Amino acid sequence: MSEGVRKPYDEIKTHDGGAYSRFIASNICNASSRWQRDNAYWNGTGFSADARAFSAGDFTIVRNKTKGGKIQHQREAADIAADNQRRYTISLPITGFSELRQLGRESECRPGSMIMMSGSDLLSLQKSFESDTLTVMLPQDFVETRMTRSDDICARATPIGSLQRLIFASASALHETAADMASEELQKAVGVVGELVLLALGNLTDARSSVSPVRAANLMRAKRIIQARCSNPDLTLENVAKECGLSVRYLHVLFQDDGRTFRQYIVHERLHRAHHRLRFGSPATTNITDVAFAVGFSNVSHFSTAFRRVFSVAPRDVLRQGVK
Q: Which CATH architecture has domain 213-321?
């Protein structure tokens, strides 16, 4: 389902898991979703979802209540390619909790904390039996011109601290009054909440005054190209620089200032994609050599050595353990 399906206002009250999945795809991002009954809490009422979403351009605010079972959202490479989602998701749980896996990290987010997810990366998200969550969707450029290393923030549950009441009060009030706002007003209002969210997520400590918004935006554009092309074993710094319209030397300096070389960054991306494939793959049908080649490695021995160095475990062990 493409981003064009998104509506200025969308609401759903349903017991149908398929309808709920379509609501998520339309308003947040493409993902395969499934509901699993939790017998420990089962009360016989079945699954239900009650959600309202307000969108202005690429800015969206959603309040989403579900109960009756655990919800598993899985965002794979095909989903990313289908909607080309260039947004970040900020989750602020009111009740319940979620378990998240992205970029090789595993986090649990509960009330009193928030978490950011990238729409450009593989994702696994499981919500508890009953949950009530405020979700703020921000455009990629909005985030990446304000945070120089937004990929380091993603998939890390962050206590909101002293900004907690202000953020939740602002997001809740905005969601309640959004129906009466014009599109331009809503976009500005969600942007204000987004500024507070980024502040709470570490904008003040993470941002570096010496890095201009233009340099930060150029670096993030290069990273997105690498993320989209890293399965190509022949991808080079020259290829990325040409696609960005930048000089090779300038792009080399951008990566150097970011703390990792181009080569280190692309290997990082390939390894974490391989880890995700192995963790969610079936030992009966998943071949480690195929995974190594699929993410852009041309030498399986080099892949295995690099994998063990980063994750302190062999690829075959991750495949055997899988998702519990």
A: Orthogonal Bundle (1.10)
CA distance 264 to 44: 52
Structure tokens at 131: 């949950």
| Distance between CA atoms of residues 6 and 288, nearest Å | 38
Six-digit token string for 312: 């302190």
Report strand pairing: 105-109 vs 98-102. antiparallel
Taking only the tens place, the pLDDT of each residue in 196-217 is: 888 887 644 444 444 566 777 7
Domain boundaries for CATH 2.60.120.10 within the chain = 3-206
Tens-digit pLDDT profile for residues 154-196: 888 888 777 777 888 899 999 999 999 999 999 999 999 998 8
d(C-alpha 286, C-alpha 296), whole Å: 16
**What CATH class has 3-206?**
mainly beta
Tokens representing residue 193 in the block: 């909440």
Where exactly does CATH 1.10.10.60 map onto the chain?
A: 213-321
CB 117 within 8 A of CB 156: no
Q: Is the dihedral of CA 307, 310, 312, 313 positive or negative?
A: negative
